[in-house]
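Practice record 12: protein with 3,4-dihydroxybenzoic acid.
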Amino acid sequence: MRTQVAIIGAGPAGLLLGQLLHKHGIDNIVLERHTGEYVLSRIRAGVIEQVAVDLIDEAGVGARMHREGLVHDGTQICVDGVRHRIDFKELTGKTVMVYGQTEITKDLMDGRAAAGAQTVYTAEDVALHDIFADQPRVTYRADGKVHEIECDFIAGCDGFHGISRQSVPADAISSYERVYPFGWLGLLSDTPPVSEELIYVRHRHGFALCSMRSPTRSRYYIQCSLAEDVHAWPDERFWDALKPRLDAQARERIVTGPSIEKSIAPLRSFVGEPMRFGRLLLAGDASHIVPPTGAKGLNLAASDVRYLSEALLEHYQEKSAAGLDHYSARALARVWKAERFSWWMTMLLHTFPDSMFDRKMQLAELDYLFGSRAAATAFAENYVGLPF
Ligand code: FAD
Ligand code: DHB
């Protein structure tokens, strides 16, 4: 087989890139290790920045998002039982969209199927070859046979545990990492959200987040120990741990119900530099991870894809290497700012095991955030997404 761009991974980064390239007549094949159903069963991000909304529109798959997504003008932060509000729209003129990653992925899969573009699901043993040569190749196993794709470029969009970053020589990549001493236990339920806006909760028992997917579907998270087993958390135990962290009004209003999904995510900051290795270009979680606080992971995947699709278009349409040469530096400049914001918000709102001094710093920082228009504006500017 031959294609222009072989894309590894059918998560949001791979599917969005595939759709944008296809729209401009650039041939691509997506290889995904799992089934489409499995990819859709992973409950992940929920808040989409305007720049990501714009890109999804540009890919031609935004119609359902605009019909069903919820536009949020602000967010709430509850500190030890007292709620505060940050008004994005007033402070920055911008808003965010609440629309699940699952729904975006489904819209992209449907768009890809309608365009007749090729996706190979359950592709096993995907391997990258000759990434520093002019004609790289990808091999994989399907239906008991080994297949080979010759291509011009490989886009590594296969997430943090994917094969693409692992295929790079160890001395060609510099990694920067912080692992946090806790995780998030998430629960999805068909119950109305407790509030019209998200509530980020800082409480001495630990962080919590009240989020949503629709007016009838809620997503809640609580900070948990890394040693927790999700099976040790029947729904009642989850609700009992969440409620004391909320303010009195939220505690009174919350509607609990059976979970549809429950999972634990560890929290990690990671960046691998650079993002280009010869003809292999990494995008999204394959290159960097943020802790979920602040909802930047999916949005960063989208901004990488914007830079990368523009660079590939420049290569094919204008015969210019400038976009590809600058891809890594341009993408990383935005990545590091989102890393900083996610790290800062994680440090601000979680309970850390040891230091009383750190706790006092959190409270001082929060007091400053709620008391200073400049601080609130800086928060809002980062939350709604920094400009390209
Ligand atoms: P992924 O979504 O990881 O997609 C990569 C794809 O590549 C997968 O489908 C995978 O199966 C496939 N793949 C992997 N290896 C191979 C291989 N060898 N061959 C072929 N295919 C392969 N972000 C937020 O903003 N808010 C959240 O609440 C949030 N919650 C999260 C919870 C969890 C448990 C995780 C892991 C992430 C969460 N994120 C969240 C981050 C966000 O979901 C990611 O940033 C986003 O999914 C990145 O998209 P991606 O396409 O780069 O990677
Ligand atoms: C969600 C996750 C986040 O990490 C966040 O900051 C906001 C919302 C969510 O899953 O809804």
